[in-house]
C-alpha cells in the first residue's frame, strides 16, 4: 500500500539514529511490526486465568522424545 504522510523530522531522525535503521520506510515498517506485536501480546494477557491446563510438568521434563 502506498500512502503519503507527514512525519516529524526530528522524531524520525532521532529514532533512526538510536535504532540504526537507515531509511524512513524501514523505520515505519519496523514501528508497525513492533506495534502489532505489542497489541498481540496484550491480547494474549486477556487469556490469563481463562485457560485450564491439565498437564504434568514433572513428567514433561523427564520424558524423552526418543
From TrEMBL:
Q: Protein name, please?
A: Type II toxin-antitoxin system VapB family antitoxin
Species of origin = Larkinella knui
Amino acid at each position: 500500500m502506498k500512502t503519503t504522510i507527514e512525519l516529524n523530522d526530528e522524531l524520525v531522525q532521532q529514532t533512526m539514529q538510536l535504532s540504526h535503521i537507515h531509511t524512513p520506510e524501514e523505520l515505519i515498517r519496523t514501528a508497525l511490526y513492533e506495534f502489532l506485536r505489542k497489541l498481540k501480546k496484550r491480547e494474549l494477557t486477556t487469556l490469563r486465568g481463562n485457560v485450564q491446563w491439565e498437564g504434568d510438568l514433572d513428567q514433561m521434563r523427564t520424558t524423552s522424545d526418543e
